[in-house]
Structure formats: structure tokens, C-alpha cells
Design goal:
Elements lengths: L23 H5 L19 E3 L4 E3 L2 E2 L3 E4 L2 E3 L2 E8 L4 E3 L2 E8 L2 E3 L2 E8 L4 E3 L2 E8 L4 E3 L2 E3 L27
Parallel strand pairs: 1-4, 2-5, 3-6, 4-6, 5-7, 6-8, 7-9, 8-10, 9-11, 10-12, 11-13, 12-14
Length: 171
């Protein structure tokens, strides 16, 4: 009643016009009238690279990743920022994840901050988690906050109802 199928038996396979295996260009085409599945994951875009010979004067903002090897004179806001060994950033840095291999002169705010052995930071660091490797140079203050990316972490004078600033020092 049942016989063994010959499909799985080894042997020479002859190409014929009845082969149903599509070629590479045909395999990439969606079925007629059907759109590509919306659940396909998006590929993460590559990081924006700023090479060592580049000097930028002005602020930078990105929702992606930035790798700096040159000189930036201005504030940087990004998802992830990597400051290369030859890089210098003069301004405020705000990012979810910051890796400093080079030099930052200014305030640094990040959820996760890492200063490598070649890092040089002159300024205050506000973080949720921080790692400082042996050999890193740091001059400034370190403050842990649950949400270091919010602007409320700054040390600004408190405003009084009349619009005047509260005195910061007593004489």
C-alpha cells in the first residue's frame, strides 16, 4: 500500500524545467499582490564618523551613534557617543552611552559613562553608572542621578516669585 519515496535517495539530480526552486532574483520578489512582512527587523544604521582631520564649530544632535576622532567645539547630543583617542570635544556632552578615549572639556551627562585609560576629562560628570579605568585623567565633580539626561540636574539659582534669583552666597 505504501511505498518508499525516492525523493530523499542520493543520486545525480538532473535539472529540468519543472524545478520549482526559484533563482536568486526571483526569491527576492514578494508574492504577487503581497507586501513584504512588516515585522522584519530594521538594520541598525552605522555610526556617524567624524574623522581626525575634521573640525566642527557648532552643536550636533543625533538619535543614532556618533564616533568622534576630530575636534568639536560645541554641544553634542546622541544615543551613543564614542570619543576617540585623537579627539577633543569642547562643550556639553549628553548621551545614553558615552565612551571617552580622548579629551572632553565641559560637562558630561550620560546614563552609562566609561572613561578609558587614555581619557582626559575636564568638567563635571552626571551619570547613572560610571566606569573609570586606571590611567584616566579626570578633573571635576562626579554626581550620580537616576535620570542624568534630564535638564533638571543643573545647579541653577532657584527662582523667587518676583522673578528674582535667590542669592547663592551669603555675605
Amino acid at each position: 500500500m505504501f511505498s518508499k519515496s525516492r525523493i530523499n535517495e542520493p543520486g545525480p539530480k538532473q535539472a529540468s524545467a519543472s524545478d520549482t526552486t526559484p533563482t536568486a532574483p526571483e526569491a527576492q520578489k514578494p508574492a504577487s499582490g503581497m507586501a513584504a512582512p512588516a515585522t522584519a527587523p530594521k538594520a541598525k544604521p552605522p555610526a556617524s564618523m567624524l574623522s581626525a582631520d575634521l573640525v566642527v564649530k557648532g552643536n550636533m544632535k543625533s538619535t543614532g551613534d556618533i564616533v568622534v576622532e576630530g575636534t568639536i567645539e560645541g554641544d553634542i547630543r546622541a544615543h551613543m557617543l564614542t570619543v576617540g583617542e585623537s579627539a577633543t570635544v569642547k562643550g556639553e556632552v549628553v548621551a545614553d552611552d558615552v565612551v571617552v578615549n580622548g579629551r572632553i572639556i565641559g560637562r558630561l551627562r550620560g546614563l552609562k559613562v566609561r572613561l578609558t585609560a587614555t581619557a582626559r576629562v575636564e568638567g563635571d560628570i552626571v551619570h547613572k553608572t560610571i566606569a573609570i579605568e586606571s590611567g584616566a585623567h579626570f578633573e571635576g565633580s562626579v554626581q550620580r542621578q537616576e535620570d542624568p539626561l534630564s535638564n533638571s540636574g543643573g545647579k541653577k539659582p532657584m527662582q523667587l516669585p518676583g522673578g528674582n534669583s535667590a542669592p547663592t552666597e551669603k555675605n
